[in-house]
Specification:
Elements (H helix, E strand, L loop, with lengths): L1 H24 L7 E18 L2 E10 L15 E9 L2 E12 L5 E13 L1 E4 L2 E3 L2 E12 L5 E12 L2 E6 L2 E19 L2 E19 L1
Length: 210
C-alpha cells in the first residue's frame, strides 16, 4: 500500500510538472512579451517607382538592407516588442535605425512599424503568428558633391512567420513578408517626386519571450 501511495504521488508530481512546463512554453499566453530581432537575413524582391519610372531587384540580405543600391526599401534588420494582451492576440511595434556608407556616399534613417498579430500553436514547439500593420520610413542619402536627398514613405505590412522553439523561450522566426507601398516622396535640391517601394520575400530572425 505504501508503495502504491508513493508511486501515485510521484506520478502526479511528474504530470503536474509537465503541465506547468507546457503552460510556461505556450506561445501566445496572456501577459507574455515577445522580443524579436527581425529580418536578419532572407530573400527579398523589391519594386521601386519614382514619378512614372520603375526599377526592381531580387536579392539575398544578410544583416543589411539588400536594396540600398537602388534606394531604400523596408527590409532593414529591426528590433520589435509585442505584448499578448489577450489569448493569442498581440499588440506591438518594430523599429530600426540605420547608417551605412555605400561607395561614394552615405545613407541614414529610421523606421517604425506598429502592428497587431494573432498566434496559433501548431504543436508545443511550433506556432504561426500572422501580423498586420503599417511601416513608416524616413531616410537621407548623400551621393557626394553636396547632392542630398530625403525620402519618406509608408507601406501596409503583412507578415506570417513560423515561431520555431529551439530552446525554452527562444525561437527562430521564418516566413513570408509583404510591404505594400502606399505613398511616399523623395526630395532633392528643392524638387520633389512621388516614390514608392513594395517588398516581398521570405525573411528570418530570432525571438525571446518572457
Amino acid at each position: 500500500m505504501r508503495r502504491v501511495v508513493v508511486g501515485s504521488v510521484l506520478l502526479l508530481g511528474v504530470l503536474w510538472a509537465n503541465r506547468v512546463r507546457a503552460q510556461e512554453l505556450a506561445f501566445g499566453s496572456v501577459g507574455h512579451v515577445a522580443i524579436s530581432a527581425e529580418r536578419l537575413f532572407g530573400f527579398v524582391h523589391t519594386d521601386e517607382s519614382v514619378s512614372g519610372g520603375s526599377a526592381s531587384v531580387d536579392t539575398i540580405s544578410l544583416l543589411s538592407n539588400p536594396t540600398a543600391l537602388i534606394g531604400t526599401g523596408y527590409s532593414w534588420p529591426r528590433i520589435a516588442v509585442d505584448v499578448f494582451v489577450s489569448p493569442s492576440v498581440s499588440l506591438g511595434a518594430a523599429a530600426s535605425v540605420f547608417n551605412i556608407s555605400p561607395t561614394g556616399g552615405s545613407l541614414s534613417g529610421y523606421q517604425f512599424a506598429p502592428r497587431v498579430g494573432y498566434a496559433g500553436n501548431v504543436s508545443p514547439r511550433v506556432a504561426i503568428w500572422p501580423r498586420g500593420g503599417i511601416t513608416y520610413e524616413h531616410a537621407s542619402t548623400n551621393s557626394g558633391g553636396g547632392n542630398v536627398a530625403t525620402q519618406s514613405f509608408l507601406a501596409l505590412t503583412i507578415e506570417a512567420p513560423l515561431v520555431i522553439l529551439v530552446v525554452p523561450r527562444a525561437a527562430l522566426l521564418i516566413g513570408p513578408t509583404l510591404d505594400l507601398g502606399l505613398t511616399g516622396t523623395v526630395s532633392s535640391g528643392g524638387l520633389s517626386a512621388d516614390q514608392k517601394f513594395t517588398d516581398f520575400g521570405v525573411q528570418a530572425g530570432l525571438l525571446l519571450f518572457i
